[in-house]
Amino acid sequence: MSIIKEFKEFAMRGNVIDMAVGVVIGAAFGKIISSLVDDIIMPLVGVATGGMNFTDYKWVIQQAVVDGATKEVLKPEVTLNWGTWIQTIVDFLIVAFCIFVAIKAINQLKRKEKDAPEPEAAPEPTKEEALLTEIRDILKEKEAK
Asked: Which residues cross the membrane (predicted)?
């Protein structure tokens, strides 16, 4: 079997396509959550903490080297951006919580489907109904001949 044919069979499986759709939707969802954290939650946290902007917080490991005469940066500053890291943790916690809530809702729906009573089966026909049905079928056979 050729590699192209094998790849086509692999790529056209339903679960691979479903997974690809999930990845695309997940990426878009991640952008929405990042925007929520960056543009709504963290400014509110900043106001609550006295105007802190977490993305500005960093530990400088090595200062930048700047040419005194031309003010040109010869060697950039080396930093540990712990404020950005905290913001990323908040992103993760919100995404994890949203996924938890979604899975919990799906599991509840599945449980309700399992617990739903089976629809009642049609009652067995009485002896008279069975006899009348048999007679009807015999009469239809005779008419067909």
From this structure: 12-33, 82-103
Q: What is the pLDDT of residues 44-72, one digit of tens each?
A: 888 888 877 777 889 999 998 888 888 88
14 within domain boundaries: yes
How far is 118 from 107, CA to CA, in rounded Å?
Answer: 19
Find the radius of gyration of the CA atoms of the chain.
Answer: 34
Contact in structure between 133 and 125 (CB atoms under 8 Å): yes
Tens digits of residue pLDDT in 71-103? 888 898 999 999 889 888 888 888 788 888 888
HSE value, Cβ hemisphere, 13 Å, CA-based, for 28: 5
> pLDDT of 9-20, one tens digit each?
777 776 777 788
Provide the number of structural domains found in the chain: 1
- What DSSP character marks residue 94? H
CATH code for the domain in which residue 66 is found: 1.10.1200.120
Q: CA separation (Å) from 105 to 27, 32, 98, 110? A: 21, 21, 11, 9
Classify residue 13 by its DSSP letter.
S
